[in-house]
Every structure is written in C-alpha cells, then in structure tokens.
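User: what does the whole thing look like in 3D?
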Amino acid sequence: MSFDPQQIQDILIIIVAAATPLLLAAIGEVVAERAGVLNLGLEGMMIVGASTGFAFAYMTDSTIVGVIAGILGGVLMSAVFAFLTIGLATNQVAAGLALTIFGRGLANLIGEGFVGLKRSGAPHLYIPGLTDLPLVGRLIFGEDFFVYFAILLTGAVGYWLMRTRAGLTLRAVGENHTSGHSLGVPVRGIRLLAVLFGGACAGLAGCYLSLSYTPFWSPDMTAGRGWIALALVVFASWKPWRALAGAILFGGVAVLALAFQGLGVPIPAQLLNSLPYLTTIIVLVVLSLRDSRGALAPASLGQAFIPDR
Amino acid sequence: MEQANTAIAGEPESPLLAVRGITKRFGSFTANDNITLGLTPGEVHALLGENGAGKSTLVKMLYGLLAPTEGEILWQGASIKLPNPNAARALGIGMVFQHFSLFDNLTVAENIALVMPASDRLQDVPGKIDGISRAYGMGLEPNRPVWSLSAGERQRIEIARCLLQDPKVLILDEPTSVLTPQEAEKLFETLDRLKAEGRALLYISHHLEEVKRLCDRATILRLGKLVGTCDPRVETPRSLAALMVGSQIMEVRAAGAHTLGKDRLVVSDLDAPSPSLHGVSLKHVSLAVKGGEVFGIAGVAGNGQSELFANLSGESLARRPEAIVIDGSPVGALGISDRRALNAGFVPEERNGHAAAPDFTLSENIVLTGHGSDGLTRLGFINGAAAKDQSQKVIAAFDVRKSGADPLARTLSGGNLQKFVVGREILREPALLVINQPTWGVDALAAATIRQALLDLCARGAAVLIISQDLDELFEISDRIAVIHTGELSEALPARGTTREEIGLLMAGMPGGANVAGGSAHAP
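Assistant: Here's the predicted 3D structure for the full assembly of 833 residues, as structure tokens:
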C-alpha cells in the first residue's frame, strides 16, 4: 500500500461518510434511552426514512424535500412505537422488534417504484481556498451538510442533556419515573417527545444513506446499521460525545472490512463485520469494571410507566 | 410547643389548607370516604391510621398526585383544583415522601433543581442549597451523587428541596421510618422550628410516641373513613392505637419463662464481599443463637442486613463452610435446600418477589420453599394435593384472609401475605428460623399475630433470629439485640437493661453504649 496523502484523505472521507448515519441514529437513540425508552426499532425507522426520503426527493427533484419527508417518515414510525409503548405500556423490546420488521416491509413498499433510479448526491460544501487545501481540505471543508449537521447535533444534544433544565428533567425521567411522576414531571409527555426525536434522527440517518452515501434506493440498504447504532449507544455509555468517537471507530471498522475484502486480505469478512459488536462487549466489560457504581444505563430503561390517577 | 392549646377541640377558625367531604375511589374500592380535615398555620397535625387506612391516598390528593372523586380542597377558604404537584407547590404545599422521590445517579443539586421554578438559573442552585443547609444545619454537599448518601442524608435532601420553595404547608409521610433515634431527634428540632415559623405541618407516622412528642392535633383514619380528631398529648400510645385499629390490640406475651438450650446457630468471623456494586460487605460477623432464644439484629436500612440474610439462608455461600454452623453442621458451603433439610427456615424481607412469587398461587408458593425438604415433590413431579393441603393448614393456622380457594399471592393484602409466608415456615416447626423484617408494612393486628407466633415457636425450643429496623419490635420480643452497621455486627446486648439510645448510637456507628453491657454478650 502506498502512502499517497491524497489516498489517506480519501480513506478518511469514506470513514466519515460511514460514521455519519451511525452517529445520527445513535444520537436520537441516546435521547430516547436517556428518557428511559429502549427503541429497538432503529433499523426499521432508518429504512423507512431512506425510502421515503429518496421517493420524495426523486419526485420533487429536491434534496431538502426528501430530507423533510424522510424525517417525517422516521417520526411517524416512532409515533407508532410511542403509541404502543408509552400510550398502551406494552413491552418495549417486543414493540421495537416489531417496528423493525414492519419498517422493512413498509420501506420496500414505498420504494417499490424507485428501484434502479438514480439521483445526484447531496451537494458538498465548497469554500474556495479552504476546500482546496491539501490533505485536510476536502475532509474538513468539503463534506455535505449531513456531516456538519450530525456533528452540530452531537454538541447541541450533549450540552442540552447535561447543562439545561429540560435535559436534566429528561435524564431524571429515565433514572426513576416513579420519583419523576411524584414530583409532577410529565413522564409520558417527555418520553413521547424523546421517542419522536429519536425517530426524526433515525429518519435523517436513513435519508443520508439514500440521498448522499449511495444516492439511490435499494431494498434493505440500511444493512444492519440500525443495530450497529444501537450497539454504539451502549458503547458510548449514553454520552453523545463518546457516540461521536464510537461512530468514527465503528465506521472505520466497516470501511476496513470493505478495503480488506477488496485487497484480498485473508481475514474473513464476517469476522470484520462482527467487530463493532465485539468492541461494544469489550468496552462494556471495561467500563463496568472501572465504574464502581455499576449504573451506566439509565435506571428505568425499558420499563413501562403507568401513572395512577 | 405550649401554644394553641385552646383551639384543639373544635375546628380551628382559619385553616390554611382543608379538605371537605373528600372521597377517592379506585374502581369499586373506596380508599377515602368523605374525609374532612383542616390545617392551621403553626400547628403540627398528625394523620394516623393503619396501613391501608387511606393516609397516603389523602396526602397524594393534597399534593396534586391524585384527583379526588368527590369533595373539595380548600386553600385559605377558597375551593381549588390541584391538577398536578406543580400547582400544589405553586400554592406553597411541599411534600416529603416516605419512599424518597430522589434520583440515585443525579447529584444533590440536580435532584433539587428539578423542582425549582423555571425562573431560577441552574447554576445558582448549589449556592441556594448551601444557604438552606447552613440555616437548618443540614450539612448537604450539592455535588455529591445521591447514591453515595445515607438514608438520613437523603431525607435531608427531600426536606431541603421542600424548604427552598418556602412552603406554607409541609406534608411528611412517615419521615422517621429509616432514621436512627438520634437522626429522628434532629428532624424533630427542624420540625419544631418550622412550626415556630408559622408553617402548617401534616405528619404521618406509625410511631405514636413521636406523635405525642410533636403533634398538636391528630386525625385518625380507619379503612378509608374518618374516625375522629383528638389531642395526642392527652392520649396514650395505647389509646391512640385502639382508635386506629378499632379494637384493643392483644398484648404480645412470651409464653412464660423458658430455659435456653444449646447453640443452634453459630456464625463465626463471617466475611463476605458485597455481591452487588451498590451493596455492603460483611466484616467479621460473629453471633450465636441458642434454642429458645430470640436474637434481634437492629440497624438502619442498607447496612448489610440483606447481605447477612443471604449468607445465612444460603442465597450467598460463605467462603469457609465452618463460618456458619447450624446444629453442629457446618453449612457455609451448602445451598438453601440443604440448609432447609437441616430443619432451618428462612423468611426474606420482600414478601412480593422474594418470599413469594406474586403471580403464583399460594399452594405453588408452598412448593417453592418446600420442594427439597417437605415431601411435596416425587421424582421431580409436584404433588399438588399435598401442596394444597399444606397451604390450607397455613391459612387456617394463621387466619390468612383471602378470596377464592387458592388465590395468586399478589391478590392478598400485605398483612395476610406476610402471615402466610411466616406461617409457611413456622408450621414446618423449624429448629432455626431466620426472618428479615417480619412485620414491615403490616397492620397492627397481623404484626401482633406474627410476633406471638415467633415467641411461641421459640418457647418450643427453636432459635429465632430477627433482622428488623423496628426498634419497638426488637425490644418487644428479643432476648438479646445486636446492631449491624456498615457490615459489622456489634456485641449482643440483653434487651432488658439496654436503652433505645444505646442501640441508636450503635446504629449510627458510634460505639458509645457498647461497653455498658458488653460483658454479657456471651452470657448463657
């Protein structure tokens, strides 16, 4: 392998592209889980976002319209989940798995007439001079808006969760919904908003796949990224900034797997594909050994709340 | 405390907060039936009643957590609606919950900031906490996470959280149930001060001595109905209890003088690292219980009681088999069924989920503990008829009230299920019974029944070890009392001749009272 700086930048750009959908989906899930709702339907919401996004972008020939439609697609999916788990207090794991299966079918239905169609990808930033810089120009100043938005979102969510009253309230609901309720915090309302935000993020992540990463629609194009994003949330121990680092790591591993296959390196692709999950397990073990509280996850995560009144 | 004696008998002239004819129904169950009550500034008003009398339901309505079915809530004479706790707080109603409404993984400041009005900046909260903490001598550190604090400290957070909102009415739901006597005394000083500042306090407690010490008036509920209002200072704890229960409570009596037998349970130098990360490690625990003796273990919750119970019952195994000896056999390495086979019985603290499986029937719950030792299974198959038979015996012997022939455990009331899980062990006539919190959250009649059954078992030669946070209970039935604090067990003191204060000091980790009767720990 050569050490052409141009090639290194290309590889880094691909890694960022692979990390972006993971990060977007994971940030949304961090918010939902911090509020105490485990939404395993991430994959389903992403794939619906991808197909709706592409369909609307193709029909209107507008990336923005596609993005809005994709986000709405994710939000509607999460609204179904919220109705089941928050409104009817059904089991979150079962509802999340059902959402994934439902999402796959629905997305293929929506995308039925769009298979094989192509669009040009989302526009990339171009700042004369800066973008032309060698080595880092295109990496830092030449990405598309999804990438910048994902990073801004990470910072904003991190600040909001830890430094604002609303974020504190959301964390409190995820820690102990009974206490929250007895203090007058609207537990179910907060959880609803958190789940919808998670759906919006997952929809956006799906849009990124069908509008920028590979600007076409194909069935099952999320290819398990929703599950990796779920692992990423645990890996990040529910902290947005760690999710950013984890997304780059997981994205890098995915790119590495592809590159090794292309170069014919004799490591089974399946092993490389399993690396994100293996890493998550290792990180979990290390974190729980280090953190003497043993309370990394939000304490009410996955528990239904039924107020008496 | 000597003020306002004149206004006691009748309805005081200007109640700050009052309820008139309030009724709350859950489906067909009436939790509160036509209750009327008024709180005046500068009074401490006791709300008394058995478990299930409707006290918690009533205060939840006053705090906006429940909506009344009928009747009205009056604030300074005007009828109001309280749609949520925020509305109650905005008026000046604060509440300290029995089960703390705290968030373990958040800091003290974050816990308090949650209920501050939105106009307060988050960064200013630690300063305000310091202010109130100094003013009332609470010693709160704003940046400590709650999980690292003791029960007493946690309660001070709850109180500080209320005081920061400068409430005119403060509701306290069993505030002393997790405190040492000294911590409780400190709380009373704060409450006296709040009363002197002209606030109205509504005080729920089981401890009638406390009510006499603190309260100007008492309202008594029984089965959701108002029984009456009285002046607790002129009543005796016994007369108050009779009002609560509606009849005289039988007095628990040891069955005459009984002689002590040989050591049936000997624990020597038991060390056990905490199995969970939040738990407590046991350090050099030694004790011996003789046949015919009730050995009590006192302590504030979370000082190693559940860990000690798990080691004694075999849920956790000891490192050395000889660390725990039952009737001469080292059992430290044996599991629960093997220890039961040596005729030991165990009743854990949590009746729903630990002592009994809530969604199993009573006869199935009989099998769960007796499968290894009581002939309820054959070749791995359950003998359903034998289990039902045994279950019926327990129900009859302990007057367990239930609906249906073999109901699910969770459909029983707390007192009845507790009688069932205790009776299940006692009918086996164990040589050793280890019981954790025998009467926690149980009504007075059921508690008296259980205590009497324990004493009777003891009189038949069994050794009984009771772990309890209720000092009154321990003094009532124990022969000797030891105190567990941060996983270490004190010397055992004879119950007669030891004061609550001595035990209280040990509970707080101050060995001041230990040497008073230290020499008698190994007396026969």
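In plain terms: The CA atoms of residues 13 and 139 of chain A lie 6 Å apart. The mean pLDDT of chain A is 90.
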